[in-house]
Automatic annotation (TrEMBL), chain A:
Residues passing through the membrane, by range: 148-169
Name of the protein in question: YtkA-like protein
UniProt keyword annotations, A-Z: Membrane, Signal, Transmembrane, Transmembrane helix
Signal sequence bounds: 1-29
TrEMBL record, chain B:
Alphabetically ordered keywords of this record: Membrane, Transmembrane, Transmembrane helix
Organism of this sequence: Umezawaea endophytica
Comp. bias (Polar residues): 1-12
Protein name as it appears in the record: Uncharacterized protein
Ranges that cross the membrane: 21-42, 62-80, 112-130, 150-171, 178-195, 207-227, 234-252, 280-298, 310-332, 344-365
Region (Disordered): 1-20
């Protein structure tokens, strides 16, 4: 009796894993960065092109942003500060984009709130330090259903777990048995 | 769910001879599954930190999916085996996942441990679909605090909790206790991942993530300290945690780099200064465990009430976690130094939430002991 059950379980598990791994290869190609919109910005002495993989930008929707200084990134460094009405600020170093190594970039990046964002750049290079900004990058409202609805769906596993613990607690009443049960 | 009466009580002699479901193989399967989940999760987070690009089928993702798949399928098989044995009037060993409860009337007889593990694994599957819907709306993301990610992470935590219950039911056997030690250490370790989502409360008066870690660590440690009869076996839980932490500390960045090489991707210009998930577990865990073991041993020998001592022990755990974590995370470069005021307020919260963890933990230990007490010894016993 035991052997067929175990064999079935083992075969089922192996088949599931084989299916997952077998389909993994064609699906595992990392998507290239496709720029659909660009902006030009003068950062001190350095002209730079900023590329966006989604346009217009929407809150919470991830995209790739690339930064391409004229003459390349070699020998240069810097940072970008993303500001929303002076109330929200995120600073990111300018580093190579993982899927587009010839330029700097932010990968699968999302801004959480809609509004007119400012991209403020600081660059250091052979011609000294430069600063510049793209003003009023309009980020639209988030797509999809209201966030509260999305979170309420995600509370289901928590609620199921808590419900299980509450039911088990009420049935077993552990507080009444601590002394006797743990004495054994 | 209705409590099922057992058709027959298994004895050491007849369980293997009659071929009734026994627990060892099932426990190995669900432990393997949750181990895959733990390693996959740590690897995946490290991958995003050090390399970046994402698809649905990255290798660390496959570890995570395979982990829940293995745990879920093994649970389903065990439930079907116990159901078949119950309906045929064959003996059912309660050590195989704990007392069976009726599901869908009495259509299925599900050992409670496997019921929790299997249900949580099924919820993981639906959460995965929910994650796909999310990604189709918002694109790929590499954040922990998205709604479907929290659902996925919590369902894995409950899968691990089911493994703890399953092993606890078999704790009269050596393999059951070893499984309990490993599964509890994995759970205590793993929950730091979903707790990272509490950083959405960053900037508040206390560090919410550390308050959460204080609670889960205190609950897990007090539960195991009181559940295991021998405090030396509880100290082993601390050693297993340290071993897991050390292993993942080495494994996660190494696996990320090797995998990146294999698919022709470079590391980021700025990589994580230390392994992300392993560094989120208190490095002080072993001293904490030893301290709690001494307290529990002393209280047992002096006859102090567990209901009084457990919250005290939990408060101590919470205090040490809340006080040391900011320094640990600053030392390993994960976070900037935390303001002293925030640390002190977090320590106060850590004491309170740790005491609550102790209060809950000693009662969880009682519930698990009750489950274990219903399981007679089997041939694979002590």
């Amino acid at each position: 009796m035991r052997t067929p059950w175990l064999r079935t379980a083992a075969l089922g598990t192996t088949a599931a894993l084989a299916l997952a791994l077998g389909t993994a290869a064609p699906a595992s190609a990392f998507e290239p960065v496709e720029i659909v919109h660009t902006e030009r910005v003068q950062v001190g002495p350095y002209p730079m092109t900023v590329g966006f993989s989604e346009w217009p930008m929407r809150a919470m929707h991830s995209l790739d942003v690339t930064f391409m200084p004229e003459g390349g990134t070699a020998g240069r460094s810097g940072q970008v500060e993303l500001l929303l009405d002076s109330a929200e600020s995120e600073v990111e170093p300018l580093v190579r984009h993982p899927r587009k190594q010839e330029v700097w970039g932010l990968d699968v990046y999302a801004l959480d709130d809609p509004g007119a964002w400012t991209f403020k750049f600081t660059l250091d290079g052979p011609e000294g330090r430069g600063e510049g900004a793209i003003q009023a990058v309009n980020v639209l409202e988030q797509p999809g259903p209201p966030l509260a609805l999305s979170w309420s769906l995600s509370v289901v596993p928590v609620a199921m777990g808590v419900l299980f613990l509450v039911v088990a607690w009420r049935r077993m009443r552990p507080g009444d048995q601590v002394g006797t049960v743990l004495a054994t | 769910m209705d409590q099922l009466s057992r058709a027959r009580t298994t004895t050491a002699e007849d369980a293997p001879a009659r071929g009734g479901p026994s627990g060892g193989v099932g426990v190995v399967a669900i432990l393997t599954g949750t181990m895959l989940s733990l390693f996959g999760m740590s690897w995946d987070i490290q991958w995003h930190e050090d390399v970046g690009p994402d698809t649905f089928f990255t290798l660390p993702h496959l570890f995570i999916y395979a982990g829940s798949a293995v745990a879920g399928i093994a649970s389903l098989v065990m439930v079907l085996r116990v159901t078949a044995a119950t309906k045929a009037g064959r003996p059912v060993d309660p050590a195989a996942g704990g007392t069976a409860v009726g599901v869908f009337g009495k259509t299925f007889a599900a050992p409670v441990g496997y019921l929790v593990t299997g249900t949580a694994a099924a919820v993981f599957l639906f959460s995965g679909l929910w994650d796909q819907v999310w990604h189709s709306t918002y694109g790929f993301d590499a954040t922990i605090a998205s709604p479907p990610h929290v659902a996925l992470l919590v369902s894995v935590a409950f899968t691990m909790m089911g493994v703890v219950v399953t092993c606890a039911a078999a704790a009269r056997t050596t393999w059951g206790r070893r499984g309990f030690q490993l599964s509890l250490a994995m759970l205590a370790f793993y929950v730091v991942v979903p707790l990272k989502s509490l950083d959405v409360f960053e900037g508040g008066p206390v560090n919410a993530v550390q308050v959460g870690v204080a609670f889960t660590t205190a609950t897990a440690l007090v539960t195991s300290a009181y559940f295991l009869r021998d405090v030396r076996e509880f100290v082993v839980v601390g050693l297993v945690c340290v071993a897991l932490q050390a292993t993942l500390w080495l494994f996660s960045p190494w696996a990320s780099e090797v995998y990146a090489d294999s698919v022709g991707l470079p590391l980021r210009d700025i990589v994580s200064p230390s392994p992300d998930v392993p560094s989120a577990l208190p490095l002080t865990l072993l001293p904490i465990v030893v301290g709690l073991a001494v307290l529990v041993a002393a209280s047992r020998s002096r006859g102090w009430s567990p209901t009084g001592v457990a919250p005290l022990g939990g408060a101590g755990v919470g205090l040490v976690v809340a006080l040391t974590m900011p320094f640990q995370l600053a030392a390993v470069g994960q976070e900037p130094p935390q303001a002293l005021g925030t640390t002190l307020l977090t320590a106060v919260a850590g004491v309170a939430i740790g005491a609550l963890g102790g209060f809950v933990g000693v009662r969880f230990a009682t519930m698990l002991r009750t489950l274990e007490s219903s399981a007679p010894l089997t041939a694979g016993g002590r």
